[in-house]
Amino acid sequence: MATFEFLLQGLWVAAQPMNLLYALIGVTLGTAVGVLPGIGPALTVALLLPVTYQLDPAGSLIMFAGIYYGGMYGGSTTSILLNTPGESASIVTALEGNKMARAGRGGPALATAAIGSFVAGLIATLGLAFIAPYIVKLALVFGPREYFALMVLAFVTVSSAFGDSTLRGLTALFVGLALSVVGIDQLTGQARLSFGVPELLDGIEVTTLAVAMFAIGETLFIAAQGEKGPDKVEAVRGSIWMSKLDWARSWKPWLRGTFIGFPIGAMPAGGAEIGTFLSYAAEKRLAKHPEEFGHGAIEGVAGPEAANNASAAGTLVPLLTLGLPTTATAAIMLAGFQQYGLQPGPLLFATNPQLVWGLIASLLIANFMLLVLNLPLIGLWVKLLTIPKPWLYAGILMFATLGTIGANPSVYELGMLLAFGLLGYAMRVFGYPIAPVVVGLILGPLAEQQLRRALAISQGDVSVLFTSPIAAVLLVIAAAALIIPLILRARGRGEVLAQLAANED
Amino acid sequence: MKHFFLASILAGAMALPAYAADYTIIAPANPGGGWDQTARSLQTVLQQEGISGNVQVQNVPGAGGTIGLAQFASQQKGNPNALIVGGYVMVGAILTNKSPVTLKDVTPIARLTGEFEAIVVPAASEIKTMADLVAALKKDPGAVSWAGGSAGGTDHIAVGLIAKAAGVDPTKINYIAYSGGGEALAAILGSQVTAGISGYGEFEAQVKAGTLRLIAVSSGERLAGIDAPTLKESGLDVVVENWRMVAAAPGLTDEQKAAVSADVEKLAKSAGWQEVLKTKGWQDSYLSGDAFAAQLDKDVAATEGVLKDIGLVK
């Protein structure tokens, strides 16, 4: 049980008063940058790196861990309350969370997000501690063709899960896919659809699109309604805490979200978003009342939020075991390690066990700290909804603009923000769902690149896509997810159809 | 609201230009990458060594550094307090992106660090030496897949040069581009590709752990502490160094240029900078003045040649 002893020792290190203070600073800062759209944990850690040079390794890594988890959590707050995802991984949270907040259930939504994040963070951090070496072996089996199959599965489940009309959902998805091909093609280095504008060469930033479509589009929509806006937001209806029913409906999605998010986060090309998409789709399929989805189903907040935090811990698996950073934040944390002459990689667990276990222990502490910090704040956050609408939306507009400019000081970026904001407004007016556009922008390049890589490696042999067992299984699941609803629809004249009809509105 | 307040200060601090700065360093990349780390190390050492009182780093990411370069060249003209970090990747990106602004539009001051390319295969691979890899390449160039960083980048250019030196048609190489050496690493470890190529630092931990086999490095001479032959020893006349440099704004007077060069030289010779190089594992490849200018011209010409050979530049 050497592992366990190391973990206890790590907890001892992390529980020193000074280190607890660093953890507190970290989670507070992390939550703050997570809340502000555009500024992510990556930039924050980069800014703090020179400052922490003076600290001891344990202290600074603990602070980074706090920022990392805090950032993952903070994004959900604005998603739920303001329909403005601070990070791309909390886009899905906005779908159900904001509907809940408008129905006066912002408190339970924030609580299930906070507790779900805690549960997921706890399980995933323990997973990182005990099974990281095995997870990473599994992750390495995933080559381009397996990733492509995973993307196909994500497309199929996600596109059917968003919105009530398949046609509108798919239209929105294809808008996103079209936007995703803008910029330099990664495999050949050639520019596509950039029309000679150098700022477009790197493609369209996901956070810019998400903030524009959600925040700016929403603001314009509300402003256009003027005084006669129909939905009077009720800040609080019933308890601001989770009821017994909320707990009963939340705990399974938390666990499912964790088990979806952690392995996908651990995959070198996984990322946090895909886990949240798949979790949302899974919850919608498994829910007892799927008709509530789109109108504020708590499962749709609990699952994706858990997946989001679990994948944050998952990202550390390749970082610690392979020295392979899979997100920008992980890349900077790697730089943080190197600052102290440590090289993450297969030997790190053997050569610097105290530090690795100190980090894992500090993740546990940061996770706990987040819960302590955020649960009492829920009452305060919910008050945000009582701010008069003109002030609230003026504030949203300002923070969205400031965040975008802060992340990338460029006039083009601001222009894109406004242009996509108008697009988001138009789509709202004509009843098109917003989320699939962002989903298309995120999944499109991944699917395209992995498909082309797989075909390049096989020198054009298409059969390679089906001959790997993992890819084949994923594709079969995707096919089943696509075909089974069609069969049910064709066969059932009674119950099934009625339920589907109930879904339509 | 406390969070909003904190965050807006943070945003404000980054969005506003710093008027009190002695130097503003543009890192033409996102936080976390090599250029960003170079810029932030420069910031730390310049302040620590008392060369400059106040140094700010600003990230202007995009398109292999050409966005930052273009913005720097137009906005900082004649400003002796502005610096930009750049490197070999920029040379390729300027050509592939047909960037209107080139390195001729700024004032290159000095090359600071560099990293050599490493060619690796999975430990279980049948390929034991560079000669084996070249033989496979000659037999069927398409069957040898190379994983490395972005298309047209240093890794891609190095593969093109290797193919050319081995007498293989460079347009036939099967190069699989990843967003960086790290992502490529996963593909190599998973034996998805035949071989991998990237900066040695990306592979170091795996090579030491024995999960990757290092078969060659792209330096002119063997590197201290690295047990691998050079490409030259393997019969391929190829030397590639992924260097990083610092440049000043265009339109400086000779005195201003000399002052910046003196500051950079002081930095490069300082104990603080040497310490940074050691902890980060960067090679010291300080080169300044006319020698650097000549080397730069040589690199640009060679890169243009190979990018044409690969077919990325027409």
From TrEMBL, chain A:
This is Tricarboxylic transport membrane protein.
UniProtKB/TrEMBL annotation, chain B:
Keywords: Signal. Residues 1-20 form the signal peptide. It comes from the Bacteria. This is Tripartite tricarboxylate transporter substrate binding protein. Belongs to the UPF0065 (bug) family. PANTHER family: TRICARBOXYLATE-BINDING PROTEIN (PTHR42928), UPF0065 PROTEIN YFLP (PTHR42928:SF3). SUPFAM superfamilies: Periplasmic binding protein-like II. It comes from Ensifer oleiphilus.
